[in-house]
Recover the amino acids of this structure.
């Protein structure tokens, strides 16, 4: 495909490359690190543009490619990407542009919703699928917490089982104007896709049977944002999906227990990579 | 100077533990606190006050739109305007305004305003507002589309009022195969339009370009001055005349016989409005995308305190409110008029938990003793230092 990727990063000590991909309407920021079978990681509502411990752990076994969704982190808001259906096409374009062949796709929360939609739309394009505390289903009996309405203190309380760990995601005790603007920008990007219908695609449930990828759904047992009923429903409707719950953890998942979430993800993907008997890193 | 009597229609009977246990009177404040009988009496009291305003000489009587809130009981301002239209004869019936950013169907607004224009025999003024942030939660409207919904709805409504033939409307947020408004408005080409401003330079330019009236929201004089200057500058650049009567200053006013009585009685009503009525979280007022990045930066850097943290004394000094004897109120408003150059005063007299008797007395004192002093100011012939 085109050579639009501009590598502006450095590769030392396993730290990621920073790249920008040109798209109509702007550019997308992504981080890439590690080697092995490619893993496309789709981030949650928070934490865009950052390489956390979770990423580094996965990158010990895989080539991790972590783009920021349009409007999040270092990515421009792409005017034409304004709904979940547009996001699916956006990521199909991105997979093609990067020349990834059936990458594993790992998505957390909002990113899990995108990953599931991607796997529904083009079951042939992805390898294995890992959904971490995925959003995206409309289950009126198990409402998703309205993060848009919470105060910063309330956000910490609902995201973390142990609020003492919140500094991973919210490092500044007193956020600067730029910190607040960056957070407002990420929430604005999320709201474009998730305000109404609220963090869901009402049609997704009936389409999940199309997913062909081996699938793991892993949820934090103490999720106060997306009740685990959502993960269970995903696992029920995706053919042969495996469901796991990780204790002592809130919806912040890979910010609260990075080793546990990296481990369960890597173990599942490694097993699939081996059983698929494909040469690793096929695309590069 | 033109005088407008503006009503919010608050529900003042909050529970005793409101300050401790309720983060806001809006969006999530349970409706079980709405006493059906007391609420019923309030509507009639408030409509009486609006009608009385015409009797004592106000040029306009104004209502507005709020949803799911004890701050204001008018989810549909057009219903209130309809109730007033045939009970009054002279005053402008001002809807300030319809929250066309939130409304699902803007064509319905065009239809209702056209009907109101007939009920009032051509006295309707049509304000358009985006709606407060919490209303985007309340009606599940995506706030990231607020600005474009407002602009598209405005364009559609104006075209619906002015087009003589059926037309098709297609814009990103609205699609109508047939727009063909019956009735047309009485006023030609359509009722006057009012738009509130809170600092956006796009809005100033938009209002000046169209010859609309620019009205302030509750803010300190220094800030309102920046907005009005910005509007006048935008008008200058477009080479249109910034008629002072198209600049409307919004302010709560309480008048009593003496300064002492006015502050003794008025303080709690003002505190109700700013410390209870306007008690709201950042997330409630500024949902994601409701503010552009530039406006949000400006807001964060402005250092404007939340209303709830602004004391009564600060509200007085800052020019958020005007309280006092008739002479003091007249002097203060003359001073503000000198500084701001407005030709229209949008007064809120029924403030917070004020009684009907206090409201009426305040209106009477204002009408008999303050209006005459201000009347000559702020006309096109009598321009001021501020402009």
């Amino acid at each position: 495909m085109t050579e639009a990727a501009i590598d502006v990063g450095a590769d030392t000590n396993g730290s990621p490359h920073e790249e920008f991909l040109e798209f109509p309407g702007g550019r997308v920021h992504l981080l890439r690190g590690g080697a092995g079978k490619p893993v496309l990681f789709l981030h949650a509502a928070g934490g865009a543009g950052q390489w956390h411990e979770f990423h580094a752990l996965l990158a010990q076994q895989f080539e991790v490619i972590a783009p920021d969704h349009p409007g999040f982190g270092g990515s421009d808001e792409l005017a034409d990407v304004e709904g979940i259906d547009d996001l699916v096409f956006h990521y199909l374009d991105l997979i093609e542009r990067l020349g990834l062949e059936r990458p594993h796709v790992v998505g957390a929360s909002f990113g899990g919703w995108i990953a599931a939609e991607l796997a529904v739309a083009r079951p042939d394009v992805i390898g294995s699928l890992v959904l971490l505390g995925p959003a995206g289903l409309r289950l009126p009996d198990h409402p998703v917490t309205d993060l848009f309405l919470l105060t910063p203190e309330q956000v910490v309380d609902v995201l973390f089982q142990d609020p003492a760990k919140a500094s991973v995601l919210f490092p500044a005790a007193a956020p600067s104007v730029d910190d607040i603007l960056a957070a407002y920008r990420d929430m604005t990007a999320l709201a474009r896709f998730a305000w109404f219908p609220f963090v869901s695609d009402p049609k997704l449930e009936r389409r999940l049977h199309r997913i062909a990828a081996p699938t793991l759904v892993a949820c934090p047992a103490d999720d106060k944002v997306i009740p685990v009923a959502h993960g269970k429903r995903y696992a029920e409707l995706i053919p042969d999906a495996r469901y796991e719950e990780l204790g002592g953890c809130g919806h912040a998942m890979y910010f609260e227990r990075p080793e546990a979430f990296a481990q369960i993800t890597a173990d599942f993907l490694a097993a699939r990579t081996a059983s698929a008997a494909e040469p690793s890193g096929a695309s590069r | 100077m033109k005088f407008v009597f503006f009503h919010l229609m608050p529900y003042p009977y909050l529970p005793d533990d409101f300050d401790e246990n309720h983060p806001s009177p809006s969006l999530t404040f349970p409706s079980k606190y709405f006493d059906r009988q007391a609420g019923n009496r309030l509507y009639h009291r408030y409509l009486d006050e609006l009608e009385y305003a015409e009797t004592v000489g106000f040029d306009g009587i104004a209502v507005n739109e709020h949803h799911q809130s004890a701050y204001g009981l008018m989810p549909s301002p057009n219903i209130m305007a309809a109730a007033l239209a045939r009970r009054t004869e002279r005053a402008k019936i001002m809807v300030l305004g319809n929250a066309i950013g939130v409304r699902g169907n803007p064509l319905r607004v065009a239809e209702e305003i056209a009907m109101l224009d007939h009920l009032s025999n051509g006295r309707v003024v049509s304000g358009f507002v985006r709606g407060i942030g919490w209303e985007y939660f309340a009606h599940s409207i995506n706030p990231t589309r607020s600005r474009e919904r407002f602009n598209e709805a405005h364009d559609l409504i104006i075209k619906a009022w002015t087009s003589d033939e059926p037309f098709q409307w297609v814009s990103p947020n609205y699609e109508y195969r047939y727009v063909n408004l019956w009735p047309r408005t009485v006023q030609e080409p359509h009722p006057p339009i009012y738009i509130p401003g809170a600092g956006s330079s796009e809005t100033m330019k938009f209002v000046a370009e169209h010859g609309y009236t620019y009205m302030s929201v509750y803010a300190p004089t220094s800030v309102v001055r920046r907005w009005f200057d910005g509007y006048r500058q935008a008008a200058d650049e477009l080479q249109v005349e910034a008629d002072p009567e198209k600049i409307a200053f919004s302010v709560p006013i309480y008048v009593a016989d003496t300064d002492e009585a006015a502050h003794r009685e008025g303080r709690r009503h003002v505190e109700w409005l700013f410390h209870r009525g306007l008690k709201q979280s950042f997330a409630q007022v500024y949902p994601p995308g409701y503010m552009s990045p530039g406006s949000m930066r400006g807001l964060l850097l402005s250092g404007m305190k939340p209303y709830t943290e602004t004391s009564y004394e600060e509200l007085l000094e800052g020019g958020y409110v005007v309280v006092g004897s008739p002479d003091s109120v007249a002097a203060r408003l003359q001073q503000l008029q000198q500084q701001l150059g407005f030709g229209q005063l949008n007064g809120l007299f029924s403030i917070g938990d004020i009684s009907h008797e206090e409201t009426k007395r305040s209106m009477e004192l204002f009408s008999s003793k303050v209006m005459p002093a201000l009347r000559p100011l702020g006309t096109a012939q009598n321009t001021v230092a501020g402009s």
User: Anything to note?
Assistant: Chain B has one domain: 2-374. Chain B touches chain A at residues 27, 136-137, 140-144, 281-284, 286-289, 291, 293, 296-297, 300-301 (CB under 8 Å).
